[in-house]
Amino acid sequence: VACLVWCVVWFLVVTSKPKDYRWISEAEHNYIKQSIGNTVASKTTNRAPPLPLRSILTSPPFWAIFVAGLGGSVGFFTLLTYLPLYMKNMLHYDMKSSAAFSGLPYLGFIILSLVIGYVGDLLRQKGYIRTGTLRKVSET
């Protein structure tokens, strides 16, 4: 329900161009135009440049991100699917009476993600780790 409400609000409020926004003032519109100017697409043909599909598909960084994301998703959904079965059949936990306990791995995932993000940003800002290295370590 929340996603549907968000979609309705998004489609009613968000526009592609500042000039199409219903509630923008002239001062705001001028500020945006002066700050970012016209884009390359709007200066020439009002069309976006073609998608460099061949370059994308032959890019090692793209495949690294794709494989890492796929592996992370498979691992997450395997945990999501089989953890309750494991807890019920192997550990003999009644999932209905210990629902909070069954959510601990996911709570741990959220907390660990926030901590790693915060610590990683601190290390990057202080110059102890490069952005690319931080991304690789975080994904791992």
UniProtKB/TrEMBL annotation:
It comes from Meganyctiphanes norvegica (Northern krill). GO terms for molecular function: transmembrane transporter activity. GO terms for cellular component: membrane. This is MFS transporter. The keyword Transmembrane helix applies. Its main location: membrane. The chain crosses the membrane at residues 62-87, 99-120. One of its GO terms (biological process) is monoatomic anion transport. Residues 1-16 form the signal peptide. The keyword Nucleotide-binding does not apply. It is found in: Membrane. InterPro entries: MFS (IPR011701), MFS_Na/Anion_cotransporter (IPR050382), MFS_trans_sf (IPR036259). It is a multi-pass membrane protein. Coiled coil: none annotated. SUPFAM superfamilies: MFS general substrate transporter. Keywords: Membrane, Signal, Transmembrane, Transmembrane helix.
